[in-house]
Amino acid sequence: MSEIEPKRIIYCGVCSYPPEFCEFGISLTKCQQWLHSKHPEIYASLYPDIAPAGSSSSETAAASGDQPVSTLAAATSSLSIDQNNKIQQDLAKKQHREEIKQQKELAKKLSSKITIKRIERNKRKHIISISGLEVFNIDSKKLAKTFASKFATGASVTKNAEKMDEILVQGDVSDEAKLYIEGLLKEQGLENVKVEQVDDKKKIKKAAAAAAAAAGGSGDKGGK
């Protein structure tokens, strides 16, 4: 009686699961790239109509050949019940951890806010500073360039007192900037995030004090 050779099972070099289970993980694109590079014939059977990221459709077609399209059930039928159960349990744990991570990130975003501060430079000239964008994965440098073009003004990125990025835009465009940022948040499904507009109180106090001093000085002269 001849010995039965054990079946060789291939495991993904990215997520460590059989390629048939990669679609249930959180790194499918990287898994597909790895599989296409290391085992093009398996890739062709699992993803016959999908070109991996970074490759042309002609390369995928050449790799696919006449390989039949296999279903998940057929592809995993050779695995033992224990193997299937373990993989399913591990996948469930990974998905649960990812869901918790996403929930925490969402809670942080919903409890945060973006601040647009209106600062008076001299008399009728103003600038605005925008901070708090990093929580929402908004690229400050890219947004500064957008504002510079959109409002035909100067815009730059600098560090605030908390060592975080803030955008400085020349001109009193706080209302326009607020509407634009709210649009970006809406694209992320974050309509309820607050975009707060404030005036620089230090500047206001200085202006009020200067005005009061000027009024007092003129009163003294009038008395004399």
TrEMBL record:
GO terms for cellular component: cytoplasm; ribonucleoprotein complex; ribosome
GO BP, one annotated term: formation of translation preinitiation complex
Pfam families: DENR_N (PF21023), SUI1 (PF01253)
Keyword Ribosomal protein (UniProt): yes
Superkingdom of the source species: Eukaryota
Coiled-coil intervals, chain numbering: none
Gene3D superfamilies: SUI1-like domain
Subcellular location: Cytoplasm
Sequence similarity: Belongs to the DENR family.
Quaternary structure note: Interacts with the 40S ribosomal subunit.
Record note on domains: The SUI1 domain may be involved in RNA binding.
Protein name per UniProt: Translation machinery-associated protein 22
Source organism phylogeny: Eukaryota, Fungi, Dikarya, Ascomycota, Saccharomycotina
